[in-house]
Amino acid sequence: MINNLQDTTTLHNGVKMPWFGLGVFKVEEGPELVNAVKTAIKHGYRSVDTAAIYANEEGVGNGIVEGLKEAGIRRKELFLTSKVWNSDLGYESTITAYETSLKKLGLDYLDLYLIHWPVEGKYKDAWRALETLYKEGRVKAIGVSNFQIHHLEDLMKDAEIKPMINQVEYHPRLTQKELHAFCQNNGIQLEAWSPLMQGQLLDNEVLQEIADKHNKSVAQVILRWDLQNGVVTIPKSTKEHRIIENVNVFDFELTNDEMEVIDGLNQNHRVGPDPDNFDF
Length: 280
Description:
The protein has about 280 residues and is α/β, with parallel strands linked by helices. The chain contains ten helices and ten strands. It comes from Ureibacillus manganicus DSM 26584.
């Protein structure tokens, strides 16, 4: 059982990554973003996930610097992720994008760098760049996002290093069982984005019934389901009470029957783009 917010999973290269983190998708630059990151660190979060396309790396960096100082902890105690965007996929352009992200964040290295989407004909060159950054010790771990099984198989045919993470849309309406099993069998840690389905599940009656039994919120039940499935999760929030609520998931455990009931909500329904059919 995952017992607290600082518990970690060990990636296949030996790097330890927190099971739980803060996502900042669509949080604009400004005081709200800086305060959200600072607040999360204050309340024990040790992982933050951003991306170049979010256009908020500078604010995340400011929040991290201030948050670390106020919490009295060192940079190495925080796990930071960013991602290279589709327009920068390519060997040299990916390395340049990494350097740009570091500059905006005001940091010397990232803990995890991901290819954001599997753009056909581009992700292999980008992956070679990530391998170079990793071999040079400029990033602690490398991975992908939104990759399906066939993308992973294609990438690993030529890769020297297999991805350590695959970050995908994952929630009770999109359980991606086959992809999850494939990743487990290949030592790739699955990570969930949009774990709360952008709020669309919060009034679900089945989940509410389970939540009532544990005296928890629906959001807490879903996040607990993620963790018990061995999936790293990064819910987004900018409000302090939500940031606190989201991590109060370590004092209860869902039964096997409850886990199966939640699994049964799957409809293969996405709120984000289909990785096999996207245009951006």
